Amino acid sequence: MSLPIDQRSLQLARRYLQVANGLLIPLYLLVAAALYGAFIYAPTEREMGDVQRIFYFHMGTAWNSFLTFFAVFVAGIAYLITRKSKWDKLGAACAEVGMVFTTIVMVTGSIWAKPIWNTWWAWGDPRLMSVMVLWLMYAAYFILRSSLPEGDKKYKFSAVFGIIAFLDVPIVWMSIRWWRTIHPVVITSSGAELAAEMLHALMVSLIAMTVLCVTLVALRTAQRLNSSLADEVFQQLDQERVSRQ
Amino acid sequence: MNQVALIWILAEKDLKVEYRSPQAFLNTVFFALLILVIFNFAFDPGSQATREATPGILWVALLFPGIIQLNRSFQAEREEGTLYGLILSPTDRGVLFLGKFIANWAFLVVVDFLVLGAFVIFYNFSFSVQMLWVAWIIILASVGFAAVGTVFAAMLSSIRTREVLLPILLFPIIIPIILAAVNGTQEILILEEAQFLDRWLQLLIAFDVIFVAAGFLLFDYVVAD
């Protein structure tokens, strides 16, 4: 008995896995370089001390949490136009990885903020608040997903929410910035001048985190594609069993 | 048929239903009044700090009860099968959205004006020109709130847990509205001179334009089945 499996979907999953596989060795090298850059190569910051080194990973993950959000938006539009479930799988994978990265941004930011700003959580900082809102939107996206059964409806609604949430991000950013320029600014960010070595370490970390992000997205998309294929096979076997009885 | 007339017919239908059985209206107003009263217990009513927090209190009382109405706005349509009729009718889905959105918006504005009146009395403000500015903020903020809310309410109307899901989806998105409305109101009521009021109004208008357009374009995908 042969089971008719969607060969194109299987191929696609395989291709995503190939991408993830191909990136694995560059990823190890880049992460090693980023660790070296952040902890050994870059000089210790004069005022903040060693805790500043967290900044390299903080920036790297922050940039990616916005990138994945954009990817969710693009995948959402692609799904609404083509109605192919592969786009939903990609969007969901991006949102997952994005949410993990956003969480890392907030955690690393808090660890940095405690000694520097003397508080874990600064309600006054516009960037921090924007990331918080981003995290809330990701969370809402998954709550919506988890309350719908698999199928076109779920993919459509997730896509619509992803698009609306992405359109909202620049407005959130602007509103929080204005809000903070109007109120007394309690916390000012330190100067953005970086030593050359610091800039190099930052660049390596940015690239390493981006490659990590792409690898994880590729892996999760492949997993999602495969798991829906597996579900199909189970369903077919079930039907087969019922029809034989 | 003329599209504008069509939108009006759709909105009028909803408003007529609300007018004839004003239970949802009364529930929403009552909930808002409760919030105003509860905040009076939660904070020291006489202090200066509470005075400065009043714009925030007003907006919690205006936005949270709005959820009741939005949740209801597609429930009856689903239960009675009106929604299928609307979907099957040869109208553009964007027109359907505008009709629903305008009905929700008008409903919210009427509720909000009543709540604003109660707010003025409970928190000892006066009915002056300033309140007209607050009313203007209410009108603008309700547009964005109703636009995003209508899309989400339509989307969630087929899901069992919609009552819980709607605020979870809606509030992160409308954070700019909350910020702009609270700060705009603060400029009017608390600060001596309104410096940045224009800015907040512009932000509200930008939000309104973007999300009415987004709702118009995306509504097709949330009601199709």
Description:
The complex is a heterodimer of chains A (245) and B (225). With 245 residues, chain A is an all-alpha fold. Chain A has one domain. Helices cover 81% and strands 0% of the residues of chain A. The model of chain A is unreliable at 184-188 (pLDDT under 50). Chain B has one domain. In chain B, 83% of the residues lie in helices and 0% in strands. Chain B contains 11 helices and no strands. In chain B, helix 7 packs across helix 8. Chain B is globular and about 55 Å long. At the A-B interface, helix 4 and helix 5 of A face helix 8, helix 9, helix 10 and helix 11 of B.
Count up the domains of chain A: 1
On the 0 to 100 scale, the average pLDDT of chain A is 87
Strand content of chain A: under 5%
Strand content of chain B: under 5%
Instruction: Determine the structural class of chain A based on helices, strands and strand pairing.
Output: mainly alpha
Got a strand count of chain B? 0
Number of helices of chain A: 6
Q: Note the quaternary state here.
A: heterodimer
- Give, in order, the helices and strands of chain A: HHHHHH
Radius of gyration of chain B: 18 Å
Note the gap between the termini of chain A.
Answer: 16 Å
* Total domain modules of chain B: 1
Query: What kind of sheet is the major sheet of chain B?
Result: none
- The count of β-strands of chain A is 0
Tally of helical segments of chain B: 11
Overall geometric form of chain B: globular
Shape of chain A: globular
